[in-house]
Design a protein that fits this description.
six-stranded parallel beta sheet, dTDP-4-dehydrorhamnose reductase, alpha/beta, single chain, dTDP_dehydrorham_reduct, oxidoreductase
Amino acid sequence: MRILVTGGKGMLGRTLCRAWKKHEVIAAGRAEADITDAAGFDRLVGELRPDAVVHCAAFTAVDRCETESEAAYRVNAAGTGNVAAACRRHEVRLIAISTDYVFGGELDRPCHEFDTPIPGTVYGRSKFAGEELIRQTCPDHVIARTSWLYGAGGPSFVHTMMALADGSRPELKVVADQFGNPTGADALAGHLAILLEHPELSGTWHLTCEGEASWYEFACEIFRLAGKKQKVTPCATAEFPRPARRPANSRLDKMMLRLHHLPPMPEWRQVLAEFMQSEFSL
């Protein structure tokens, strides 16, 4: 298959290029594929004639979205709508990457694909607006929500923790009252490939690794695997106020995988251990 990846120079885009060797993957950054230019993007899709577009491009600076809301909607909503319109016009399958932030984080259980999104941030609202434009515009689509993503080269929480544990800080405080599913980009790429290669599968899917952790537990596991003696102290979200409210519950339930009898995502600790070994030569 010939696959056009928007945001192709980012962490997930680079992972897809490396993981999908049997396909022709065209990784397009903003210079090659500006999704905010509707006519230009439509023209690009018409010229390349891909079998599928994997839409990774997004304004993901969560705090900046709060102060630059118009820019967030320009990229995450209108830009995504442009991608969906081009895919519909040229009859191209669309795989779009979305986020746990479409939920407000208030539920006391993992959110499944049939729960009603109630985003609590500009980032979440703009991403959900993009999802809705896809549903309205492009029938042949998959929306894949993920969270707490890390991958080769970063940037990610894993890379940040490893950089902070340089021996200069006697203690690191890490939030212990936010919970989610740490997810490796390679694991995500594997399940995206399943959805990509099965045109009968469509709709909204949750793709995060199995198991859950707090940011504190995630950090402790990173340091354990790295063999670092860094002291980590759990703290509350209130100790680190940010412009955008972080969801207390980012856990995603993979109901669609179960309903379609597809393989489950791998367990997060196993994926992290493999990543740490390859990324940091442990």
